[in-house]
């Protein structure tokens, strides 16, 4: 099987897993987010473990999973916001545990233990808040009296992938001016603006179907995705270059790992959610 065929098949699986999982039902929505969170955090820790730093992998992932689980229950209105305070003793416990690990660089270890909580767990933990208590695109399977719409997430990923595909195609065809050559030699300004235009056009075409917010706000969301998604991809490229690795993982043949596929989403979604919360 050649690389193009492998990438195409894996890409199809990624789309089915992501859109299908988020779209099917509220339970599958939460399960899909949990897989993305655990996968991205695990790959970050595995890359860092190959350096002189030894983060607390299991406590970090457990804390991220607990944060996501509580956030999901809060978003679904089964718990109050005050239950998020449970994270305080978890964070303190990790800091105390570092005292007993006798690492050569304990504060570097703590920094790399906590960073994925911000980089990976926080963005994914915001996703349930964009779906519960919102109306718009319905889930495939009915969910009773719960007010729930995966429209924001479905639209977000469609626009993100349109932007990425548009940037690749336009950049390959006419890209001449490098966007940030020292980090990502193949990215071009032509590709960046090409992806942005195609994403905005897609937002205009799909806004009525997705619902949740009005057409003009979907177009603004597409612009946020184009800019923040590009910076997210560049940031992960910077991380991999600093660690001397090509891909964050091998779980997705031809595409790398979870971080390679969801790096743009981790950067862009918090800003999209902020925009929706303020102006939606």
What do these coordinates show?
- It is a single chain.
- This protein is 70% helix and 3% strand.
- The protein is mainly α.
- The chain has one domain (3-279).
- The protein has a two-stranded antiparallel sheet.
- It is globular, with a radius of gyration of 19 Å.
Q: How would you state the average pLDDT, rounded?
A: 91
Helix/sheet category: mainly alpha
Euclidean distance between termini CA atoms = 46 Å
Instruction: Note the run of SSEs as H and E.
Output: HHHHHHEEHHH
- The geometry reads as globular
Count of domains: 1
Strand content: under 5%
Strand order of the largest sheet: 1-2
Characterize the quaternary organization of these chains: single chain
Summarize the model shown.
The chain has 280 residues and is mainly α. The protein has helices at 3-24, 26-49, 57-75, 87-99, 106-126, 151-174, 189-210, 215-243, 258-279; strands spanning 178-180, 184-188. It has one domain (3-279).
List the helices and strands and how they pair.
Layout: H1 3-24, H2 26-49, H3 57-75, H4 87-99, H5 106-126, H6 151-174, E1 178-180, E2 184-188, H7 189-210, H8 215-243, H9 258-279
Antiparallel strand pairs: 1-2
Helix pairs in contact: 1-2, 1-6, 2-3, 2-5, 3-4, 3-5, 4-5, 5-9, 6-7, 6-8, 7-8, 8-9
């Amino acid at each position: 099987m050649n690389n193009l065929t492998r990438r195409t098949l894996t890409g199809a699986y990624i789309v089915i897993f992501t859109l299908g999982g988020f779209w099917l039902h509220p339970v599958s929505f939460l399960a899909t987010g949990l897989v993305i969170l655990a996968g991205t955090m695990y790959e970050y820790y595995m890359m860092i473990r190959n350096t002189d730093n030894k983060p607390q992998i299991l406590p970090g992932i457990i804390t991220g999973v607990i944060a996501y689980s509580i956030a999901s229950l809060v978003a679904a209105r089964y718990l109050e916001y005050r239950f998020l305070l449970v994270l305080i003793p978890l964070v303190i416990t990790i800091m105390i545990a570092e005292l007993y690990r006798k690492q050569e660089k304990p504060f570097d270890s703590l920094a790399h233990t906590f960073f994925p909580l911000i980089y990976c767990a926080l963005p994914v933990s915001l996703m349930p808040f964009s779906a519960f208590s919102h109306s718009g695109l319905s889930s495939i399977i009915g969910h009773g009296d719960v007010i729930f719409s995966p429209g924001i997430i479905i639209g977000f990923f469609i626009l993100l992938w349109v932007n990425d595909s548009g940037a690749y195609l336009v950049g390959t065809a006419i890209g001449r001016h490098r966007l940030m050559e020292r980090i990502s030699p193949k990215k071009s300004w032509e590709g960046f603006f090409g992806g942005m235009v195609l994403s905005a056009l897609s937002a205009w075409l799909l806004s009525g179907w997705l619902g949740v917010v009005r057409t003009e706000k979907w177009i603004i969301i597409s612009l946020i995705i184009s800019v923040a998604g590009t910076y997210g991809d560049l940031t992960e490229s910077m991380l991999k270059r600093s660690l001397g690795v090509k891909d964050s993982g091998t779980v997705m043949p031809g595409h790398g790992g979870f971080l390679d596929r969801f790096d743009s989403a981790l950067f862009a979604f918090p800003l999209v959610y902020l925009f929706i919360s303020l102006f939606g």
